[in-house]
Structure formats: structure tokens, C-alpha cells
Amino acid sequence: MDARCRSTKPTTVKAKPTTKTVDGDSTKASDALALPLYITNAVFFTLFFSVVYYLLSRWREKIRNSVPLHFVTPSEIVSLLALVASFVYLIGFFGIDFVQSLFLRPSGDVWTTDEDDERSIVKDDSRKVPCGAALDSSVPHQVPSPVLSVLKSVDPLPVPIKLNEEDEEIVKSVVIGTTPSYSLEAKLGDCGRAAAIRREALQRITSKSLSGLPLDGFDYASILGQCCEMPIGYVQIPVGIAGPLLLDGREFSVPMATTEGCLVASTNRGCKAIHLSGGANSVLLRDGMTRAPVVRFGTAKRAAQLKMFLEEPENFETLALVFNKSSRFARLQNIKCAIAGKNLYTRFSCSTGDAMGMNMVSKGVQNVLDFLQEDFPDMDVIGISGNFCSDKKPAAVNWIEGRGKSVVCEAVIKGDVVRKVLKTNVEALVELNMLKNLAGSAMAGALGGFNAHASNIVSAIYIATGQDPAQNVESSHCITMMEAVNDGRDLHVSVTMPSIEVGTVGGGTQLASQSACLNLLGVKGANRESPGSNSRLLATIVAGSVLAGELSLMAALAAGQLVKSHLKYNRSSRDIANVSSS
């Protein structure tokens, strides 16, 4: 198999002499341009987008005026020629260097340079195998040791990576701008090696040390094209375990990735109180991801006509068939519309199986928009997302209608447990919840924030299990309720969370660490027997963990233990030692 991997022995670079400038840099082909390369790029970018905007405007006018599209004016012909010319230039994405590499490829199997090439040290490898696939599959993917021998030093100055002669030349080409940093994975075919070279180049460009940022021990091929671009390492976040959480008759050990002291310990105490009281119960109310495009018409009347068409029950079956073609799991549930002048916002809701479903619902929405374009040719699609969804922003529509999974979780905590484990009493908890979580949040004008710290638990579980941390915004919408029951002896506590957005497939869930945390909860991957059940179970676990966290923090506040606990568990002993010695 032609893997084209480097030999483990350093390869001698046999390069023909290149023309040198006074400063010692080789003459680049782009130096022959009348303008500097960055100005040339800016000119072509401006030309391309200006022409595209002009042609789209003309196209809309022709549609509105019923003029055939093939009738073109001289100005449109010139614009088309300019579009082709600028597109040919921009196909290299950032100008001449990459375009030349497409036509001036080295012919040998070794890394060579040529007088007619720019200092294109990196050979443009056009193989089709995925990054890392050429490595020996009999051993775990590891980055070559010559690249990843990072000097373990605490020196604040940049600590150079030990590089062989080939990698050193590639780093230099990245530093001077000959080789784009973003193209290293495609050119090298080794994601780990690309990350190490990019990291070293960044240290030299910025003169800042990255010695505290780990590089080795991570499978960079696993994030290519789906999780992170241009990696230079990874951040370490400790993962703690809270539990067991007794929820719906099952026990769960809940992984929480956080750097906030007391958070895991507090949630663990809440889990203990719930367990000693017989466990918590949960109910899934809704399960549907949403996407809301915004379209514009010439008049508000036309926008209203489309609104009535979409909300007509007789049309729903046809629209659902069109929508559901996007995936075997996507199933359209409902469409809700809102008008602002001549602009129409349509909120599509659909089930998405075990995926969080943003991409799935977006594909289905695009299918419906294409279908509607036939009957509403004057419909101008402004954006596939019009913020009526609403994604990663606090919004009343999510608080009221729900988004993702809507869950209610409740438990009755025995009075003895409240006193012995939570160190407070039922009456104090009920009063505090009313004055803090309900009245206090209302005084603050909170939107979905009628709780003590739901976002703490949601964020920690999301990071540990590979969810989108930014969706913590709406996923943390929660109202915590407490009341005395059984003649005031026991405490009924509940959390209602209308928009928990989670998935067990796709995105960061496939990474090794996050996949292990999902496996710990018993929800790894897709459930083939009952699609969607894994993600729904994960949502109830999130709600149950929030219930435990709310219970423990509210008890600490009622008992006056919050400051004492944080001074004990949320302070670095090293920092305190430094302060005491100064």
C-alpha cells in the first residue's frame, strides 16, 4: 500500500539553489506582482463578493418582474466574467501560493524545492486516504516522536520542539507565510505531526511559550473535519464523579468536568440525600429540536399567505414528507409561524433520534424551503436561522415552547435526611427557595433562571459527555420548586427544564474521553432497538443531577455553610501558602 509516510530516519533535503534576497529570504513568485500579495488578495475578495451581490440582486429583480433569467445585459456579462476570474483566483482560498502549488507540484517522492517553485517546502500530497489512515493500524495512533519530544520545562520563554531537518524547514515556511497553517493536515497526511509543527511555528511567531499546553497523548485524527480546526494541543479539565444518583429506579455515577471546587462534592451530597429518601423520578414532556428560518416578501400580505399555508392542517402531511427526506430519524412534529412586517419566521420542530439534531433539522428545513420556492417564487430566504429557534441564546420561546428535551424531575426528601445530611430544616429550605429562586429571580427580570445554579451542573456534564457547551445557555433554563409535604415533615423538591439539548452521537460524543463518560452512564452511541432513547435518558440524568445540585446548594445557603465550604474546598493550598509566606 502506498502510504507515503516519512521514514523514521531523517531524510536529507536535496534542494536546488534558490535565489536569495539581501535579507536572506528566497525570492517568491508573488514578488513579481505589481501590488503586495495581501493587497491583491483583498482586491479579488472585494471583487468576488461585490459581483456576487450584484448578480443576486439582478436575479431577484428578474424574478419579481417575471423577466427570463437567460436575458442578460452587457453589465451582467461583464459581472459574470469578473466572477469567473475572481473565483479562479480565490479557489486557492488565500491567493497565489496555493494556486501555484496545484500546478507546480514536485515530481519526486522526497521533499524537494525548485527554482521555479516558491519556497514551497511542503509537498502537496494529493492522496485520498483520510488523515492518519496511512499509519500502522496494529498500534494506537501516536504522533512521531521526533516531532513531539517537547522539552518539559517551566521556563516562561518559548520551549522549542525537537524537530528533524524536514520539519524544521516546514516550520520556517509556515512562519514566513509560504505554507498556510490551516493546510498542514491535508499536505502532510499526519494530523499529530501537523499539530506539532503548527504549535512550534506559533511559538516562534508570537514569542510566547506553550509549554504548559499538552500536545502528546491525543488522537488528532479523530477531530479532523468535525471538532476543531488548526489544533495546537488540548486543555486538561479534571472529571469528578457524583453519585450514585438514584433516578427512576436506576443508579447512575454522573461524570462532571469542572474546575470549580465544591461543585462535585455538593452535587454528590445532593445525590446522597436523594438516594436515602428513595430516589427521584423524572418525566419527559417533549422531545423536538427546532430551526426557524426567516424569509421576506414584497408585502406583509404575501408573508401572511405563506403563514396560513404552513399552518393549514391539510398541508402538514405534504410538508412532513418533504422534510423527513433529510434523514431516516428526522420526523417533523409541528410548524409555528410569527410575522414581523413583511418578514416571516417559521419555527420547525422535529424529533432527531439520538443526535442532538441541529444539522438534521437544518437539512429538513432546507428541503421545505426549496419545495415552497415553487409555489412562492417571490419568497426571499434571508437566513436558514432567524433566531426564532432559538439557539445558544436565552429566549422566551424556548422557556415556553421548549427545545430539545423538556424534562421534569422530582423527589421527596425525608425530614431526617434534611436535618442529618443537608444540615438544615424543611421550613428554611422552602422559605429560601421562595425568596431567592422565585421572588429574587423575578426582581432580577430573569428569563428561565428561577434556580440556584442549574448551569453549573449542566455545563460540567456537557463538557464531560461531549455536548456543545454553548447550548448550556438555554439548556440551563430551570425553575426549582420546594414545598413542605406530609404535614410539614418532608420536603418535595422539583426542577422543570424545558430545553435540554443533548445527543449521544455526533460532535464531541465520539471523542475517546467523552465517549468513556457516556459509556459510564450507559448511553454511549445510538440505541438501535429504540432510536432516541439514549439521548432522552441522558436528558433525564442531567435533570436529576441538577435536582441534586439545587438541593445541596440551597441547603448550604440555608445553613450558612456556603462561604465556609468554598474557603475549605475552593481555594488553592499553594496560593494560600504563598500568601502566608509573603
Automatic annotation (TrEMBL):
GO CC annotations on file: endoplasmic reticulum membrane; peroxisomal membrane; plastid membrane
Membrane topology: Multi-pass membrane protein
Keywords tagged on the record: Endoplasmic reticulum, Glycoprotein, Isoprene biosynthesis, Membrane, NADP, Oxidoreductase, Transmembrane, Transmembrane helix
Subcellular location: Endoplasmic reticulum membrane; Plastid membrane
Catalytic activity: (R)-mevalonate + 2 NADP(+) + CoA = (3S)-3-hydroxy-3-methylglutaryl-CoA + 2 NADPH + 2 H(+)
GO annotation, biological process: coenzyme A metabolic process; isoprenoid biosynthetic process; sterol biosynthetic process
Compositional bias of kind Low complexity: 8-21
SUPFAM superfamilies: NAD-binding domain of HMG-CoA reductase, Substrate-binding domain of HMG-CoA reductase
Molecular function GO terms recorded: hydroxymethylglutaryl-CoA reductase (NADPH) activity
Keyword RNA-binding tagged: no
Pfam families per record: HMG-CoA_red
CDD domains with a match to the protein in the record: HMG-CoA_reductase_classI (cd00643)
Membrane among keywords: yes
Domain of life: Eukaryota
EC number: 1.1.1.34
Chain segments carrying region Disordered: 1-26
Pathway(s) served: Metabolic intermediate biosynthesis; (R)-mevalonate biosynthesis; (R)-mevalonate from acetyl-CoA: step 3/3
Membrane-crossing residue ranges in chain numbering: 35-56, 77-96
Protein family per UniProt: Belongs to the HMG-CoA reductase family.
Protein name stated in the entry: 3-hydroxy-3-methylglutaryl coenzyme A reductase
